[in-house]
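User: Run a structure prediction on this.
Assistant: Running it now.
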Amino acid sequence: DEWGDTLRNNGGEFGTTTGRPRRTGWYDAVITRYASRINGLTDIVLTKLDVLTGIEQIPVCVAYDVDGKRFDEMPLSQSDFHHAKPVYEMLPGWSEDISGARTFDDLPANAQAYVRFLEECSGSRISAIGVGADRDAIVQVHDLI
């Protein structure tokens, strides 16, 4: 949709060799929590936070709706998952340029709240945050080594 196109274009999400557009979407905390649990993840590197700058309300998928029933965790059957529709919680966005941020405190308050919310919902701590296209555009929150 239009938001997918915006996220793709702002984030440069096109295949390096083919130039094909990649699929983009909002953060899915349910699938991240599931992946964290079954893979034993302890830390997440959150990339492309800068792509969300300028969006007034940022959706985060916190559950799925399957035929009117809410699933806060992954549906058990493939059929249910196939019919699942995301349930979004809207978080306030920010308009400040974050590409120069190098510490968590450098991020705007709403960006900090967004990251904390994702961390709380995901079951793993967010230890590094990508805030721009440059190699050094990283906010390190926790040591990774």
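DSSP finds four helices and seven strands in the chain.
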